[in-house]
Specification:
Blueprint (H helix, E strand, L loop, with lengths): L2 H15 L5 H5 L7 H14 L2 H4 L5 H22 L1 H9 L15 H17 L3 H14 L4 H12 L5 H14 L5 H12 L3 H14 L4 H10 L5 H13 L11
Helix pairs in contact: 1-5, 3-5, 5-6, 7-8, 8-9, 9-10, 9-11, 10-11, 11-12, 12-13
Length: 252
Amino acid sequence: MDSQLITQCLDLYERLNRGNLDHYALLGLDRTATVATIHEAYQRWLIKLADNELATVGDASVRQRLEALRRRLDRAHAVLLDFDQRAAYERRGFREVSEVVPEEEDPQEKAKELFRKAKTLYAGKEYGPAVLALRESLRLDPDRGDALLLLGLCQYRNPAMKRDAEVNLQKAVQLEPWNAEPLVALGNLFYSEKLMKRAESFYRRALELEPGHETARRRLAEIAPPEDNSLKSTLKSAMKKGLPSLFDRKKR
């Protein structure tokens, strides 16, 4: 392989690495090139960079760069000969997928996407992956009460994370003081730990916001059943009449 061709190839390789060449320019073509023209240009390069030619290059580092150039030529040829790949390449601004810098995503939109994913995971009882998705969602958008509520519900399912569940549910209450659901979730958390007084207080607060909340009403009825009305009326009647004193008993 003559030195002039090696110099030409190395220059082409450096320009490729700097991102100065698209597939057309690499093959020495304009962007209106036909399939036949593309194939002919590729074949000319293939002859120049054939295995037997590369084998004559004594410097191993130079040979490696020439082999890399040939791989790029192979790729250019494959993309430009395929109608769909060529169209996609042109839509990307004549860049490969790996060369396209993704647009910066809106953090709030990404947070919403992660929240939707977490809801699906929660519905499928995949609480661990849901927790990971929700933590990332809250990192991007920390002031989402619904995400904190769902995170608390997921953590509540793991005995080792119940303390974290309480913290996140309390945060949800602070962010959404009008929402009964975090209060009910806290009630359920303490109910599961048999801390009935604390559970009762959260159920009562939830019912102040949403008097018809079924879970809160049912659990509160279990914890603090209503007084027996017949007993209550009996006691009231007895108080009115006056309870007998031990000193009122007749002596035997």
